[in-house]
Amino acid sequence: MVDLNPMEQSVVNAMKELGATKDTTIKTADDIMKKCNRPKGMVTNTLVSLVQKGVIKRVVREKASGYYLLAQV
Description:
Elements: H1 6-18, E1 27-28, H2 29-36, H3 40-53, E2 56-59, E3 66-69
Antiparallel strand pairs: 1-3, 2-3
Helix pairs in contact: 1-2, 2-3
């Protein structure tokens, strides 16, 4: 189990609510930002942190990268 700070937990919860739980249902940073109602820079930094911790995966796409949860946290 990975220890998450409150902002990381907020982003993970937003991703769960958006249904970003597998590689076919990825969501952009903008989608996640709107759901958790936090500044985009803060959400982007948190997404990078969660990728480094192995909680989420980043998928590089042509227009905007997408994210999805790897494990149920």
